[in-house]
Every structure is written in C-alpha cells, then in structure tokens.
Amino acid sequence: MAEQGVRWGILATGGIAAAFTADLVDLPDAELVAVASRSQESAEAFAERFGIPRAYGDWDSLARDEDIDVVYVATPHAAHRVAAGLCLEAGRNVLCEKAFTLNAREAEELVALARERGSFLMEAMWMYCNPLVRRLKALVDEGAIGEVRTVQADFGLAGPFPPAHRLRDPALGGGALLDLGVYPVSFAQLLLGEPAEVMARAVLSDEGVDLQTGALLSWESGALASVHCSIVGGTATTASVTGSRGRIDIPNGFFHPDRFVLHRDGRDPEEFALDPADGPRHSLRHEAKEVMRALRAGETESPLVPLEGTLAVMRTLDAIRERTGVRYPGELVPV
Q1: Phi first, then psi: what are they for 284, rounded to 5°?
Q2: What would the DSSP string read from start to end of 191-212?
Q3: How many CB atoms neighbour CB 199 within 10 A?
Q4: What are phi and psi of 229, to 5 degrees?
Q5: Residue 331 has what pLDDT?
Q6: Which residues of 97-120 are buried (b: 16+ CB within 10 A; e: fewer)?
Q7: Distance of alpha carbon 21 from its chain centroid, rounded?
Q8: Are strands 93-96 and 70-73 parallel, antiparallel or unpaired?
Q9: Ramachandran quadrant class, 294 (left: phi over 0; alpha: psi -120 to 50; beta: rest)
Q10: I need a surface site. Which of 84, 89, 167, 173 has the fewest CB within 10 A?
Q11: In what order do the strands lie in the sheet with 70-73?
Q12: How many CB atoms lie under 10 A from the CB of residue 283?
C-alpha cells in the first residue's frame, strides 16, 4: 500500500458515488486513482468532475488495476454481489454500499471470498461510523439507561416514485426495505444484536416491491424493536431507545444525527451535539477514515462494521421479505 495515503477506486458514478467521492477529495490521506462505469462517457465525466486520472468503461479494468488499494462499490444493491466479487477475485479490498447484497446468501458468498483472499471487506454502513451514533452506543453499553427494553426507528420518503424509478424496479432490488429499511434494522441490531423472532407486514406495488414495510423484532431478553420504512410517505426519521432506567431520543435524521437527548431517571435531560470538527452531519468521511485506518493496521474487517453484524442484518432483511412476499429476479431459492 502506498506510504503517502490510501489509493481509491470508485465503481459506479451515481449520486452516492459522487457524495462519497466529494468527501474523499477533502481527506488529505485519500488518493483518487480511478473510476469505472459501464459507460466510458459516464466514467470520463465523473473523472473530470473530481480530478480522477483514470476512467474505465468497464468494471473489470478497475478491479485489475494494481495501483488501487481499495474499491468503493456504489452500484444499486442488485449488482453488489457481482461488482464486489469481481474486485475481491482480483485481489482488491472493498467497501460496498448498503444494503450489502440482495440477500444473506450473496452476502455470505462475498464474506467467504474476502476471507479466502485475505482481503478487507466492509459494508458502507456510515451510520455505524458516525461519532454521535458511536457515543450513543457507548452510553447504552455502559448502562446509562439500564437494560434496553424497546427500540423504535423509521425512515420514509414521500416520493412519489414513478414505476420506472430504481426504487420501484424489482430487477434492481427496489422497494423501501433494502434502500431505507436497512437503516432502522441496522440501528436496532447495533444495540441488541440479531433478533430471535421477526414479524412483518408490507404494502406491495404492482411490480412486487414493498412500498412500505413495518416489522416487529424481538429478543430473548424481552427487548422489542419496532421499525418502519416507506417510499410513499415522508417520515420523521426519528429513533428512540428505551431502557429500564431511562431513554435516548434522536429527534431527526437518526442515521446521521446532529444531536440526541439522554433522559435518565431522576436527572435533567442531557443533550449531546455534533462536534463541528467532525464535519457536516451528512459527511461520509467517517466511514472512509475507518476503512483507511483498518487498512493501515492490516485488518481485514472493521470492528465498527463487523462482517458478522452485516450478515446478521441481511438475515433479518431476508426474514422480513419472506414474511411479506417480496422476491427479486434471479433469486433461485427462497430467502
């Protein structure tokens, strides 16, 4: 790996790729080497926009570029298995967008491949790397609110999204759950681990994707989580964690909060706010910095976003889809 910094390749040129790359540009120890798209024209336009020296009109060329230390995979999630797998097969380290894959089976294949190759692999669950979310988890782990009893979280967009939109396209893994629901599920599992039981209901579109989904997750400890996602209604994107001796509320944007409030029995509420030094609340720099830290340390996965946690979330998403009847093209066996 280059001594002066970590050399990045960007695979895909959509909105999330642009947002992540814009944050990489501001990190002095991140070097942008190449970008790839299925369209040479799109790759060249993206490269010109961000000052990236190489533009590839195919994914394979990026995967085989030995000047790249790590590839950020930013395709729609239906292509994650193929794109990330191509990079891992070629010996590249990978940061892969969420939802990590379409289903747990694909996720297990990627994890097995990374471990076989001894390569670094991480889901781009930026929420887990957010300094305020990390502080919230530490407070919960320290027993600040006692034993966790309930978690509530929601993420919904008003739309409306036309049938041709990727969020309505089964071939692209469309629907609310994998695009938005992954956040409330991941938030609950960050605090409680994998649930023992999953109950779910959904409203499906004519195309067969979920327009909105609600799930009740339960744990053997007696804890419950209520999670909701939607592409037909803009929700408050709040989250709340209630324990036996208090509660933590995130009043808005729980997956990239600017503040949260700790309520403890017998005490005044305490507000924890975003440190301006950590950058804007929408910054993706924290996950990029964690990837670079792990690579320099010779780690093949991040303790902040462990692969077993990613697999557990994918199993929960599979269980929710199994209970709501959502299937995607190409899934050869029931999820």
Answers
A1: -95, 5
A2: HH-S-SEEEEEEEE-TTS-EEE
A3: 13
A4: -145, 155
A5: 75
A6: bbbbbbbbbbbeebbebbeebebb
A7: 16
A8: parallel
A9: alpha
A10: 89
A11: 54-56, 30-36, 6-11, 70-73, 93-96, 121-123
A12: 20
CA distances from 304 to 51, 126, 138, 321 (A): 30, 10, 12, 26
| pTM reported for the whole predicted model | 0.96
Catalytic residues: 98
| Residue 177, both tokens | 């759950």
| Spatial separation of the C-alpha atoms in residues 38 and 28, rounded to whole Å | 29
Select the more confidently predicted residue: 18 or 332.
Answer: 18
Structure tokens at 193: 């681990």
Question: Cβ(283)–Cβ(257) under 8 Å?
Answer: no
176 and 210 Cβ atoms separated by less than 8 Å? yes
DSSP 208-257: S-EEEEEEEEE-TTS-EEEEEEESSS-----EEEEETTEEEEE-S-TTS-
- Confidence tier at 279 by pLDDT (50, 70, 90): confident
Q: Which helix (H) or strand (E) holds 54?
A: strand 54-56
> Which strand (E) or helix (H) includes residue 260?
strand 259-264
The residue assigned the tokens 């910094």 is 5
Alpha helices in the chain (DSSP H): 15-25, 40-50, 59-63, 80-89, 104-117, 126-129, 131-141, 176, 182-192, 285-296, 307-324
Residues 244, 221: contact at Cβ < 8 Å? no
Please state, for a pLDDT cut of 90, what percent of the chain lies above it: 93
Amino acid in position 188: A
What does 161-193 look like in DSSP terms, one character per residue? Answer: PPTTSGGG-GGGT-SHIIIIIHHHHHHHHHHH-
